[in-house]
Amino acid sequence: MRLLRKWGYYAWSLLEMGFGFRDWGKLTRLFLSKTQQKPVLLRLRKAPTQMLVRSRMDAWSVKEAFLDRFYERYGSKIQADWHIVDIGAAIGEFTIFAARKAPMGQVVAFEPNGDSFLLLSENLKLNAVNNARAVNAGVWSKAGAMSLDLANAEPLQAQTQFTEEVDRPGFGIPVITLGQVIADYLPAGLDLLKLDCEGAEYPILFSADQSVLNLVKRIIMEYHDLDARQNHQTLADYLREAGYQVRLVPNPVHAEIGYLYACRPEKVV
Fold first, then answer.
1. What is the pLDDT of residue 236?
2. Which pTM does this prediction carry?
3. Residue 105: CA atoms inside 13 Å, Cβ hemisphere, count?
4. Where in the sequence is the domain holding 246, given as residue range(s)?
């Protein structure tokens, strides 16, 4: 049954992308290629949006943000004046989606991977997004520096290594904490925190002081179950203890990932 659901989901998604994007030929080449490609431009049919992507995973993430609208479907509708932080912004798919939904607000997007950050910056320019700021930095439990391991050749699944020694050779990406993110960029607080950071959600959130979490009204994320201490249930329990109501939605294909939405009771939408 699960296998049938899996392939049904993939078939529907490919059909959805065929109708949702104008550049079916480029999509086909991306999905048939086994290696990362030079960036190609994909255009959405119903929205005035164009995105530079370099792989099928990039294209899939654009589908999830713009066609599936997972972060609104499993979270809440973004309001026009919201202030939003996007951790794990990748090439900017959610950043652009959110910035358009919040024209009177702002989005601050964090992406540590240099190649992804360049595409994020280019995609913001391509779509004339003026209320979003891109920051080439990682977010973690402590301030310091990090390196990225791209051994599997997929930037969206890069593994990180962290050090508090900011001048250590090979660790050239600055890292800050969630508390610093808020203090430096949105000191009045966040209407929405979005995370898609391949397991870094645990050190980011588990290390945050209650005073920091009190400044975050809503959280929407793709969670990644890692082990007995770092999984969606321990994360949900932690956020409930911090005063949030939590909703979990499993991924239709992968048992180890899914979506988590947390919202303070007085802000439930």
1. 98
2. 0.90
3. 24
4. 70-267
Examine the domain organization and report whether 109 and 123 are in the same domain: yes
At 149, is the secondary structure helix, strand, or coil?
Answer: strand
3-state secondary structure of 171: coil
Query: Are residue 77 and residue 64 in the same domain, yes or no?
Result: no
**Does residue 64 sit in the same domain as residue 75?**
no
Residue 144, token pair as written in the block: 């310091």
Number of domains in the chain: 2
The structure tokens 């951790």 sit at: 87
* 144-149: strand order across its sheet: 138-140, 173-177, 144-149, 159-163
For residue 200, the SS3 value is: coil
CA distance 79 to 98: 9
Query: Is the distance from CB of 23 to CB of 17 less than 8 angstroms?
Result: no
Check whether residue 112 and residue 122 sit in a common domain: yes
pLDDT band at 1 (very low <50, low <70, confident <90, very high): low
At 178 the three-state DSSP class reads: helix
Strand, helix or coil for residue 173: strand
3-state DSSP assignment of residue 26:
helix
Query: What whole-number distance in Å separates Cα of residue 174 and Cα of residue 177?
Result: 10
Give how far the C-alpha of residue 190 lies from the chain's centroid of Cα atoms, to the nearest Å.
16
Q: Is 212 strand, coil or helix?
A: helix
12 and 100 share a domain?
A: no
121 vs 99: CA distance, rounded Å: 14
- Tokens representing 103? 């024209």
Residues 139 and 184 in one domain: yes
